From TrEMBL:
The keyword Zinc-finger is assigned to this record: no
Gene Ontology CC terms: cytoplasm
CDD domains, per the entry: PLPDE_III_ODC
UniProt keywords, alphabetically: Lyase, Pyridoxal phosphate
Listed cofactors: pyridoxal 5'-phosphate
Pathway annotation from the record: Amine and polyamine biosynthesis; putrescine biosynthesis via L-ornithine pathway; putrescine from L-ornithine: step 1/1
InterPro entries attached to this UniProt entry: Ala_racemase/Decarboxylase_C (IPR009006), De-COase2_N (IPR022644), De-COase2_pyr-phos_BS (IPR022653), Orn/DAP/Arg_de-COase (IPR000183), Orn_de-COase (IPR002433), PLP-binding_barrel (IPR029066)
Catalytic activity: L-ornithine + H(+) = putrescine + CO2
Enzymatic class: lyase
Family of this protein: Belongs to the Orn/Lys/Arg decarboxylase class-II family.
Designated name of the protein: ornithine decarboxylase
GO molecular function, one term: ornithine decarboxylase activity
Active site: C325 (proton donor)
């Protein structure tokens, strides 16, 4: 997964300390794969996955739109060259003054999931288009999303009707099937719910136009995942199944699937130890951990591929931990990670598939460690 361009960067630049390197050629390939797999869907890149300006500029130049979770991300997308009509404010939890600021910047598409959010938008962005997020179960996802966002389909109908009564345009519905979703049928279940909301609103005299099918498209870690084409076929089949020949406008919001496999983190082994003379399990400490950008190892949900200069030697299961003085800073312990027995202090290791949700999850200065440095090539 480490491209030759990334290998060459490490060989010539030799950056000190842990760092992320992202290959934009991989990002370009991923964008084209999504465009080919779902040619009738608009791509709204989830900026939160990796907001590096170089990535945003590349995607803007390719014609991507952007899903933003904050005013800061809206401003980033605009700075990268996107126009306001290519940006949605997709967070269902927004301050009213942030809604007003986004509206002043030209944003016209907002997510909601309750009456109270509708009320804020009707005051701060009168006449705007809104889509209501519907709850999904997230079954099949390695990083399932909680009940924090969305509402049940019956309530979505009430929320959208409330939007209409408050002068907003009820534009559509959205859902998210869970991050790193490997079940191709997940979108079928969610689209069935979306269609139910469409039908109920039609009975009330309101024609919805758009289904935001969210993200969830995976990147490859230790296990193979279906290609973008497989997701495209499954999603198109589900759309035809539930909407027939009257297909709505559709949006997808790839984040991890757009940049995850484009990035590699270089790290260093700081310490290798055991907890007693009889302990058969080695503890391997890296100079990066949960607080340095690997937050998605929480509950060992995401297991990153790790390559070492000792690959090919005999391996044994190891506990893998970060460098900070926090007991939570352990990546893999419940299911130890197989690493070469010959691995030693000072060895550099590459943590692959780390282009998404690493720089944005890294702490500012916990224990005095600097934020994860990022290079985009």
């Amino acid at each position: 997964m480490t491209t030759q361009r990334i290998h060459d960067f490490f060989a010539t630049r030799r950056p000190d300390g842990p760092c992320l390197v992202v290959d934009t050629e991989v990002v370009r390939d991923n964008f084209n794969a999504f465009k080919h797999a779902l040619p009738d869907s608009r791509i709204f890149y989830a900026v939160k996955a990796n907001p590096a300006p170089e990535i945003l500029r590349l995607l803007a130049s390719l014609g991507s739109s952007f899903d933003c979770a904050s005013v800061a991300e809206v401003e980033m997308a605009l700075e990268a060259g996107a126009t306001a009509d290519r940006i949605s404010y997709g967070n269902t939890i927004k301050k009213e003054r942030d809604i007003a600021r986004a509206r002043a910047l030209g944003i016209d598409l907002f997510a909601v999931d309750c009456h109270e959010e509708v009320d804020k938008i009707s005051r701060a962005a009168p006449g705007a288009r809104v889509f209501c997020r519907v709850l999904t179960d997230g079954e099949g996802a390695e990083w399932p999303l909680s009940r924090k966002f969305g509402c049940v389909p019956v309530m979505a109908v009430d929320v959208l009707e409330h939007a209409v009564n408050n002068g907003l345009e009820a534009y559509g519905v959205s859902f998210h099937v869970g991050s790193q979703q490997t079940d191709l049928d997940a979108w079928d279940r969610a689209l069935a719910d979306a269609n139910a909301v469409f039908r109920a609103m039609a009975e009330k005299g309101v024609t919805l136009q758009m289904v935001n099918m969210g993200g969830g498209f995976p990147t490859r870690y230790l296990k193979d995942v279906p290609a973008a084409e497989a997701y495209g076929r499954a999603i198109f089949s589900a759309l035809r199944k539930h909407f027939g020949n009257r297909l709505p406008e559709t949006i997808i919001e790839p984040g991890r699937g757009m940049v995850g496999n484009a990035g590699v983190i270089k790290s260093e082994v700081v310490l290798i130890s055991r907890k007693s003379a009889e302990d058969k399990t080695r503890w391997v400490y890296l100079d990066i951990g949960k607080f340095g950008g690997l937050a998605e190892t929480m509950d060992e949900s995401i297991r990153y591929p790790i390559t070492t200069p000792r690959d090919g030697d005999e391996t044994e299961p190891c506990v893998l931990a970060g460098p900070t003085c926090d007991s939570a800073d352990v990546m893999y312990e419940k299911k130890p990670y197989p690493l070469p027995i010959t691995l030693t202090i000072g060895d550099e290791v590459l943590i692959e598939g780390t282009g998404a949700y690493t720089t944005t999850y890294a702490s500012v200065a916990f224990n005095g460690f600097e934020p994860l440095r990022s290079y985009v090539i």
